[in-house]
Batch of 2 targets.
Target 1
Amino acid sequence: MSLLVLRGAVEQGLIYALVALGLHISYRTLDIADLTTDGTFTLGAAISAVYVVAGQPLLGVAMALLGGALAGFVTALLQTRLGVQPILAGIITMTALYSVNLAVMGKPNVNFLKESTVFTAAQEWLGEYGALFEAALVTGALCVLLALFLRTQLGLSLRATGDNRDMVAASSINPAFTTTVGLCLANALVALAGALLAQYQKFADNTMGTGMVVIGLASLIIGEVLFGHRARRSLVCGVAAAAVGAVVYRIIVATAIALHVDAKSMKLVSAVIVAAAIAAPALRDKLLFYQKRREASRNA
Amino acid sequence: MPEMLELHRISKTFGAGTIDEKKAVEELSLTLAPGDFVTIIGGNGAGKSTLFNAVAGAFFVDAGRILLDGRDVTFQPEHRRANSIGRLFQDPLKGTAPHMTIEENLALAYLRTARTRSPFGTVGKKDRAFFREQLAALGLGLEDRLKSPVGLLSGGQRQALTLLMATIVTPKLLLLDEHTAALDPATAEKVLALTKRVVAERHITCMMITHNIHSALSLGNRTIMMDAGRIVLELSGEQRAGMTVDGLLDAFRARVGRRLDNDRILLSEAENA
């Protein structure tokens, strides 16, 4: 794999890392599998694309953040106030977003190869390393902010909401509120990832978010495997693991493509990684049980 | 002096209109003065926990009014009331977040109720020293384990920590729902002694459900017995000081016309005999 391909993979990984950070909030912290993610990623890209075409790339990123937060708010509203099951709430919003995204772009995809983007200034300043520098800066800063946030009163409340529902109300935490805050933040981050990726690759497509939640989870899990138990024990490691996992995931994808693995099967690979990683503890327990039983029968 | 808690004829019926209709609490009135420590005993399904849930706001009562420190909280949601009501459950796992550290659990309780209440507040050096001092007072060696996840603690340690979290900022009212029943006897003793000390030192108004008639009579300054959602017997002062376990059981039978039917009370009486 050439250095150029590797750099591309790292750049993309740093952008996709924002999806992993978002899922770190919704999936890891709040313990909600938020399927809004797929739709929100595309929403961020769509909003961003429309603003780039209008010559306002930075405003596009800001609006994408807002749009993502709004999508998260709708999902939160459905599940906290209107009694829709969490998974279904995400699916409903995601489905609605499919139409919303088409409406935002006005067509299934938008190209803007010649327009200037949020990466243009950095690329003029640092040449070919501009995008890498900028993506690293944004993701790094957001990692720091997220790690700091999770220590604050609101951050602790969010974590308690996901960790022990029983204690929450008796600790003067309103779970509807913390869930809403968490889903808004998570989806804002996911939309930001979509917005930046669209401007990075200079096009947006109505299907680019498909499977994003699984890819994000795969990144999260890869990071946690790399960081070991520290990822669960330390806040900083947990956040860093999510970001690093996303970069490693992109490097794996780039390697697979370099080895002529069909790019289309990458989603299958992601699905297998996620299923295997989440199933691992259960499989390990089963295995240990069989071992124990065999030993017991041998000693009997 | 104004009363700390006033319950005016509160009622709660579950499954109203169905064959499972259950009047859990019926026209119950109770008044607690500041610093009162009331122990509550009663048979299975007498409405003790329902009473606590009503006071804490886990549901809204069907009728009646609830005043906390002079303020009407009848329709205030649970999480709002929790600012001034501390609560411990029988299950030690219910009061703490297992994957968060001791310090983070304390910080959560402290930051939500104390000082600025800014959503972005964090604990500083001074707060940490305060946590350590408070933990040392528990006498369980937890002060050196601020960074340990709470999930690694024993049930007794978790319950002691929950007690500390519920009282780290003095609550207006403390509700203890058989909070030592799931612990082994020695640990239960320790947590109970701790409870007694904290409540006395801070002059906390407190209600405690217990199945141990000895503790019911020896702890606090008032005892109430419940049956079928009502208070059937209330003891305080000299009348309470002179009461024995047998006397109480007889009094219950005289009022209600049958024996007290709480399995746990009977078991614990059998143990004590």
Target 2
Amino acid sequence: MTERFSRDRIIGILVLLPSIILVGIFVYGFIVTTIYISMTDSNTVQQLSGTQPNFIGFQNYTTLFTATVDAGRFRTDLVNNVFFTILFIIACLVIGIGLAILLDQKIKGESLFRTIFLFPMALSFVVTGVVWRWLFNPTSGLNALPTAVGLPAFQFDWFISQDQWLKFNWQSLPTIIAIILLGVVIFFALYFWSHKRSQLAAFVTGIAILLLASLALDIPSRFNGLRNPEAKGFNLALLAVVVAAAWQMSGYTMAMYLAGLRGISDDLREAARVDGATEFGVYRYVVFPLLQPITLSAIIILGHISLKIFDLVFVMGGGNNIQIDMPGINMFFTTYRGGQTAIGAAIAVIMLLMVAVVIVPYLWSSLRSEVQH
Amino acid sequence: MSNRKFYALLLIASLLLVLGIASVATAQEDLSGDLEIFSWWTGGGEAAGLEALIARFNEMYPNVNIINAAVAGGSGVNARAVLTTRMLGGDPPDVFQVHAGEELNAVWVAAGRMQPLNDIYEANGWLEQFPQGLLDLISDDAGNIYSVPVNIHRSNVLWYVPANLEEWGVTVPETWDEFINTTCPTLQAAGVTPISIGENWTQVQLWENIAVATLGVEGYNGLWDGTTSWVSPEVTSTFETLGQVMDCANEDMNSLSWQDASQRVANGEAAFNLMGDWAAGYFLVDLALEPNVGFGWATTPGTAGTFVMLSDTFGLPIGAPNEANARAWLNFVGTAEAQDIFNPLKGSLPANTTASIGDTSLYNAYFQSAYEDWTSNDIVGSLAHGAVSPPAFLNGFASLISAFQTDRDAASAGANAGALALQVGMVSPQ
């Protein structure tokens, strides 16, 4: 009992108090305010004239997912953002680990190369955006590069390309998600069966059967609010943004992996080699598994950058290029150009949820492991 | 001999008169303190024009310390975001720039944040000096006037290089049909881009020009008050035409600023460019071209006799910290003198009809011809520049045009715009 109110403890709490209060107000308080605003009909004119907004529940969210007034811009943003996030993370991880392995070969001038690869991260996304906007200019820039040696110019339109791959109808999205879920669930079911964890396996198999049944009865397709088909897909213009973003951030993943590689003791590698592992085998069975926590951290950090991305796309696309539009840009325009604060707040809340999906499990697991230690 | 003497006397007399007026002007009540002027004029001729206005104002009121609070970027989007935040936070500037029309009325006036300026208009006799159509755009139904216009721009102008058109064997198209069916194929066969288009807002501007041409003045105005149906076949056809014109345009439109697009015409890569008349300043000053020689102009197809206008104005917010200085500024910028200082630099028409528009050393050949149209044509407001719709509509419409560029679905573009007009409360449900 005396321990609980020891002097150290009280001082500790007192020292923490200011930041707890500040974070409480300026982070969590404002998150709650934003969520509240997103459930009203608040707009600029209302705020300026001092009239109270009306509470309208989830109507703004319904608008975002069903209204066609801006040609489903928000839904396009979501699709763009998902494709961008996946490609951006894969590109950064692959390039990052590639560079890290190369730098780890105890080469000469390693620190020079490390600095060079890390440099892009020191730039702001705005600068990256301007530079790559010039490089990707369809009539000059990279496209004109082959003409320097007499070859015909590239024809790809980069960030203003109108081409779309993997076209799908937004209305069938629930069905698509159900099929993807089914694939994941079946994978886990097989995994658990093969590892003789029959309880879990039975549980997962049950879910799989439920999903199959709902697909057979065409239940997911009832979960869309759109009356007319709406074409979505992977806009090739996003490739330009992915290249620019990966150019900036892969040096950072490289640094993370490099730190991880340095943390793996040579004894382990030696032991593997003594056991007859090939160089590839050393990486496959020793190095990569040990790097897993780093990969997870990198995915979290890159993921929250790409889900919230604004500046890079704003600079490259000028803000109104739907092909590479992102939720953050839509939020800015809806709130400040359109003055529809409540709808902007709804977009912000959805972005928060998306980031939470990535970050909360990570925080949870790291918190739990801290407690265990 | 006596003649010469007479002129000399007249000259001296007029000089004395000017000096007298000037001394009267400088002897006005001695104001002091700050004056914060909020705008998005940060570059080129418009910044130069604002600087010149400030310099002259400083001569008149040497004790007033002017704070030029200009916010750059996004054709005013960023500035309006900052302005909204400041107004909400109870920190309004003394005067701020706002487009005449709904950008002023649907936001600031509707929220009751503006001061009526009728006394300034009456004291200066401006009610007779500013065109009635323009005053209507900055007044409420009760007749309160809320801002002072400093300029007039026209957004329905087609720019070209006369010698190039002759070389390629085309003339300026009278209608969009002519452009699509005759002009465009001829130019494409010659390997020239028929029309150069820039980023999103220039595409909205292109649509608005097509809409004026297709629907006529009454039909176009009806879009904003609900008397023209967005799902009518005529409106659908405006989007169809837009698609056909886009087919005649450069493919990299989304990567071009308006200057880039205009420059393609000057460079001979494209035949026509549709742009507001700020392009005249660009051709004249930045590219150093002669009016009627290096560059030519015409009204956009089908809009002869119509003047699609936008106007920059200054308004006085309630709670302006230095209201006396702000009123002095507003009293100044509406005068013919101020408009003759600002507009030649900005490259726009004076809004005050007593300005020296006839002075060819101030206003070049383009503005002479534009002013004639301004005083004789039907006037409609520009959508792309905030005159006819609330900002929420323009914001959604910009997304619609961007989506239309890919899907080319004219019918749903019209239907979506109609739903948007309902959603933002621009028209009421039938």
